[in-house]
Automatic annotation (TrEMBL):
<dbReference type="GO" id="GO:0046872">
    <property type="term" value="F:metal ion binding"/>
</dbReference>
<protein>
    <submittedName>
        <fullName>4Fe-4S ferredoxin, iron-sulfur binding domain protein</fullName>
    </submittedName>
</protein>
<dbReference type="InterPro" id="IPR017896">
    <property type="entry name" value="4Fe4S_Fe-S-bd"/>
</dbReference>
<keyword id="KW-0479">Metal-binding</keyword>
<keyword id="KW-0411">Iron-sulfur</keyword>
<dbReference type="InterPro" id="IPR017900">
    <property type="entry name" value="4Fe4S_Fe_S_CS"/>
</dbReference>
<dbReference type="GO" id="GO:0051536">
    <property type="term" value="F:iron-sulfur cluster binding"/>
</dbReference>
<keyword id="KW-0408">Iron</keyword>
<feature type="domain" description="4Fe-4S ferredoxin-type">
    <location>
        <begin position="38"/>
        <end position="67"/>
    </location>
</feature>
<feature type="domain" description="4Fe-4S ferredoxin-type">
    <location>
        <begin position="1"/>
        <end position="35"/>
    </location>
</feature>
Length: 114
């Protein structure tokens, strides 16, 4: 499920030397295209779908496209990262929307301390 960068949303992290998606990718796969200034996964075959880049983008410019074996092409996953959780919005090929809230470790630790 390789990342898909929405060109209109990506601002290239405003010229940062190392944009966030590039910084966090464990496979060093996210790069800024010289001619567009937008991010792209340079080799989707090497992407192991960790979705770290998807979650890291401050402009929510990266979506995880769901592979055809699991859903038809328009299926996608869009994360919104909060301080204690990640909300994943799943939009299937018929436009049906489901949301899944995953609590993060930071949230668990905070609750344990209370
Ligand atoms: S983190 Fe988001 S805005 Fe920044 S370069 Fe990557 S896709 Fe573009
Ligand atoms: S999903 Fe993971 S491995 Fe694939 S490009 Fe994004 S950060 Fe890199």
């Amino acid at each position: 499920m390789p990342p898909y960068v929405i060109p209109d949303k990506c601002d290239g992290c405003q010229g940062e030397q190392e944009p966030l998606c590039e910084l966090v990718c464990p496979g060093n796969l996210m790069v800024i295209q010289e001619h567009t200034g937008k991010a792209v996964c340079r080799d989707v075959g090497d992407c192991w779908d960790c979705m770290t880049c998807t979650k890291s983008c401050p402009r929510q410019a990266i979506q995880t496209r769901i592979q055809y074996q699991l859903a038809f092409v328009p299926g996608k996953l869009v994360p919104v990262v909060g301080p204690h959780s990640v909300t994943w919005t799943l939009i299937d090929c018929h436009g049906h929307v489901e949301r899944f809230i995953m609590r993060t470790l930071a949230g668990d630790e905070e609750e344990e301390e209370m």
